[in-house]
Write a structure and sequence with these properties.
With 241 residues, the chain is of the alpha/beta class. The protein folds into 2 domains: 30 residues; 161 residues, 3-Layer(aba) Sandwich (Cytidine Deaminase, domain 2). Helix content is 36%, strand content 16%. It has 7 helices and 7 strands. The strands form 2 sheets. The chain has a 5-stranded mixed sheet, sandwiched between helices. The longest helix is centred in the N-terminal third of the chain and has 26 residues. The radius of gyration is 19 Å and the shape is globular. Its EC number is 3.5.4.12. Belongs to the cytidine and deoxycytidylate deaminase family. InterPro entries: APOBEC/CMP_deaminase_Zn-bd, CMP_dCMP_dom, Cytidine_deaminase-like, dCMP_deaminase-rel, Deoxycytidylate_deaminase_dom. One of its GO terms (molecular function) is zinc ion binding.
Length: 241
């Protein structure tokens, strides 16, 4: 299978999985209302969107926005990751709204997911017994999976803010905007993310927090088992920078 066929199969698999999941949900509960996530002073609440009259000639309300759609693709891609501790997904989108590449964190092609370690720490202190020397991050994979399409001037949706190493590749590839869902900083990795912010800012790459899933949270329920609790947690983490 050549690179073009691989890219087409990869994209088709992601979109097919999303369609399959939606079809299964509809099959078992066809009249299920969509939900909206609303933030209040007392936390986060989940509300049902009102049903639309069959005589209403207007388009359906509460459909996925483009930001929702592309971030949902990133979340879906993350589910392909074999990492037991962290699953990250990314989706590279052209200025015309065309998906150019998708990726998730994992080992390079041809490198066995069963032979290389997934551990975060080594009992012997040997870094080669951890995942870190081997893993390719989601952002890098999304950029490399474009089937030679240019990433220059394009937008990158990613479920977690990129590290400094990914920031370098994002800048060098010409990506113009990074939209991320959450930034989770661990104490030992603070330097990497501070450096990432600094690099992206100096290079003129626009960085935005995704405020999607606020009003069309089908994918939030699909991927996140406790949306209300987790949404509050993620929102809090956005302001701890």
């Amino acid at each position: 299978m050549n690179s073009r066929e691989l890219a087409l199969v990869s994209t088709a698999a992601v979109l097919g999985a999303a369609a399959y999941a939606m079809a299964i949900r509809f099959l078992f509960n066809p009249k299920r209302d969509f939900y909206r996530i609303e933030s209040t002073q007392n936390g986060t609440v989940v509300k049902k969107s009102p049903s639309q009259s069959p005589f209403d000639p207007s388009k359906r309300k509460g459909y996925l926005s483009w930001d929702d759609y592309f971030m949902a693709i990133a979340f879906l891609s993350a589910q392909r990751s074999k990492d037991p501790n962290r699953q990250v997904g990314a989706c590279l989108v052209s200025e015309h709204g065309i998906i150019l590449g998708i990726g998730y964190n994992g080992f390079p092609r041809g490198c066995s997911d069963d032979k290389l370690p997934w551990a975060k720490k080594s009992e012997t202190g040997d870094p080669l017994e951890t995942k870190y020397p081997y893993v390719c991050h989601a952002e890098v994979n999304a950029i490399l999976n474009t089937n030679h399409a240019s990433a220059a001037g394009q937008r990158l949706y990613v479920t977690m803010f990129p590290c400094n190493e990914c920031a370098k590749i994002i800048i060098q590839s010409g990506v113009s905007e990074v939209i991320y869902f959450v930034e989770k900083r661990l104490k030992q990795s603070d330097t990497a993310y501070i450096a990432s912010h600094r690099l992206l800012s100096m290079a003129g790459v626009k960085v935005s927090i995704a405020h999607c899933f606020n009003y069309s949270s089908f994918f939030l329920h699909l991927f996140l088992p406790e949306p209300s609790h987790l949404w509050t947690k993620l929102r809090e983490s956005d302001h701890t920078q």
